[in-house]
Amino acid sequence: MSNLFIPNPKEAESIHIIREVAAQFERPVLLFSGGKDSITLVRLAQKAFFPAKIPFPLLHVDTGHNFPETIEFRDQLVKELGLELIVRNVQDSIDQGKVREEKGRYASRNSLQTTTLLDAIEEFKFDACIGGARRDEEKARAKERVFSVRDDFGQWDEKNQRPELFDMLNGKIHVGQNVRVFPISNWTELDVWEYIRTENIAIPSIYFAHKREVFFRDGLIWTANEHVYREAHEEVTEKWVRFRTVGDMTCTAAVLSEAVSLDDVVNEIRQSTLSERGARIDDKRSEAAMETRKKVGYF
Amino acid sequence: MNIQNRKLIKIATAGSVDDGKSTLIGRLLYDTHSLTTDKIEAIERSSRQRGYDYLDFSLATDGLVAEREQGITIDVAHIYFNTDKTNFIVADTPGHVEYTRNMVTGASTSQVAIILIDARKGVIEQTYRHFFIANLLRMSHVVVAINKMDLVNYSEDVFLKIKADFDALVSKSNFSEEQITFIPVSALKGENVTRKSEHMPWYVGNTLLDHLEVLEPEDLQESTAARFPVQLVIRPKTEAYHDFRGFSGKLYGNSLQVGDRVTVLPSGNESTIKSIHFFDQELESAAPGSSIVLTLADEVNCSRGDMIVKSGEVPKSEKLLSATICQVNSKPLQVGQKYTLQHGVNRVLAKVDRIEAKVHTDFSGTEETDQLKLNDIGKVHFKLSKPIHFDSYHQSKSNGAFILIDEGSFDTVSVGFIE
């Protein structure tokens, strides 16, 4: 047959999942962090509905400690694609006394996001939240479903998950429940980067090597600025670095890198022996850190 | 090389407790350099803490706290690794009797099953059950990994005895001999996993990894009739696409091309494929597995849950259904009960008309029963509120399976394979 289109199986699966969300839920939302995974989700959502627009808004839970490059990128993307963006701030949750700012050496607003997220879900009555989590990121995530049902408190019960058979997705829920949806569950970090390169998708500049003021602690490279706690003896130096994830500045470590193009980044990832979440300070707290956070509703 | 060009092989693993399944997967990850430095360090640290004099690769996959405490795997975990030529997804499923549902779940998204046998124990009741499920789900290929060969002095006699016992099972199944491969391994020592063993010169076949790499996705994909279940109608209502009315979905079974004469079910209306879209590209034809948008030449009634097929290749449409059911929820299936039946993306109401029999998963026959409990497999007859458009599971995996959703809890309680 002439010009037979052969699909990329992981892309086709993700598009199928995103369409099921639009079909099975009344108020879906795409959780957008400005990171490469959620940017990939936006491209997949475009493909799922083209030539129609993406039929749901983006929600960004802003810790106030995001890299400014990420925020600029977010606003640009939303404008270009004509998307609806909702921003909810962790600062507001702090001001309302719902959460308390962490103190000390490892202070981070990362875990405070959960409260702001759950409040936003309630405020907008979202019944499905699409996220860019992948099963290869972390071992507790390896058991996550594509449609993951959460109770009124946003809690995840890993022993009581619905089995997912073939590609049939069961999104039936009770009032008050919602579903976290992970369309790129089966992608690896390398899959995401290769996809971004193949599709030539724009990403925030901090993913590429740049000069930055940093300091070293516990074998990790931390950004030196006013949001990140630093002790007097922890010396600031300028290094060529890039980020492999773009979470909150307080919990995202940089890696030394000279990768300035997508080709460089893909090659670096392929050869890399430090896993992606190895540069996430929040996971270093304990071996079960992610599982504990997920149980209380963290994304 | 990019992802589009690399093959994707999906594997389900099954073994009993202590067969060394997690160790085998950990070994595959380690030997393909898929474990990162920080994970290897964590494994070294944990192994030291536990006083082992070897690296405990099972720690690479045993994720949840509860599992680490009990030292067992309790749910399906997905693991990813790749070689230069192939992307692999492993659905790691536990081996307990009570967790049949997990193997069915893992196997439903996989093409290849790896069944582990402890060389010291040989073929046991659990092996029967795992192979029964591989047969029920029509896996394309089964690899029987006879593990812990180091503990039986790498004996060929032990290997041949287990192979003969297993062959007796194969003769009771729908598999042909070519679909089953036996490999003697030691996951702990890395023998015949990715490296050919010097201790077993009598084994002339491929290592496990070489064997998995040789499998071709073409062999693994069934080629039947094209089935296009409609997920959503795409109506942009923009100036550029004012009159655009497209049908989005994932194509199964075979390819479709522009100009194909098609029938829309359930209405039975016929039309012709006017265009095939994938994002901003217009395609001439699309292979099965594509998530695409079709437009038709005529204004026909078509919405979510409908199915577009080639005229002349119309599936069965019936309100009475017989299926093999695997119960995947603790609430039993009983006669008279009503469920939402989800077949692909289509949902209808279904009532259990009759439970014909419970099927023994050790190939020993059937027994009468009035209910199917968690992990039971049985033959069940249903009445549906509306006809669905199906093939038998034997003809088409994608169009021959369904799930049952409990009307109260909304849990997925059963999976069905249509006769």
Automatic annotation (TrEMBL), chain A:
Listed GO MF terms: ATP binding; sulfate adenylyltransferase (ATP) activity
Organism listed in the record: Algoriphagus hitonicola
Similarity field: Belongs to the PAPS reductase family. CysD subfamily.
PANTHER family: SULFATE ADENYLYLTRANSFERASE SUBUNIT 2
UniProt keywords, alphabetically: ATP-binding, Nucleotide-binding, Nucleotidyltransferase, Transferase
Enzyme Commission number(s) from the entry: 2.7.7.4
GO biological process: sulfate assimilation
Protein name: Sulfate adenylyltransferase subunit 2
InterPro entries xref list: PAPS_reduct_dom (IPR002500), Rossmann-like_a/b/a_fold (IPR014729), SO4_adenylTrfase_ssu (IPR011784), Sulfate_adenylyltrnsfr_sub2 (IPR050128)
Superkingdom per UniProt: Bacteria
Pfam family, one: PAPS_reduct
Gene3D superfamilies according to UniProt: HUPs
Residue span, Phosphoadenosine phosphosulphate reductase domain: 28-253
EC primary class: transferase
Automatic annotation (TrEMBL), chain B:
SUPFAM superfamilies: EF-Tu/eEF-1alpha/eIF2-gamma C-terminal domain (SSF50465), P-loop containing nucleoside triphosphate hydrolases (SSF52540), Translation proteins (SSF50447)
Pfam families xrefs: GTP-eEF1A_C (PF22594), GTP_EFTU (PF00009)
Signal among keywords: no
Entry GO MF terms: ATP binding; GTP binding; GTPase activity; sulfate adenylyltransferase (ATP) activity
Signal peptide limits: none
Alphabetical UniProt keywords: ATP-binding, GTP-binding, Nucleotide-binding, Nucleotidyltransferase, Transferase
Protein's name according to its UniProt entry: sulfate adenylyltransferase
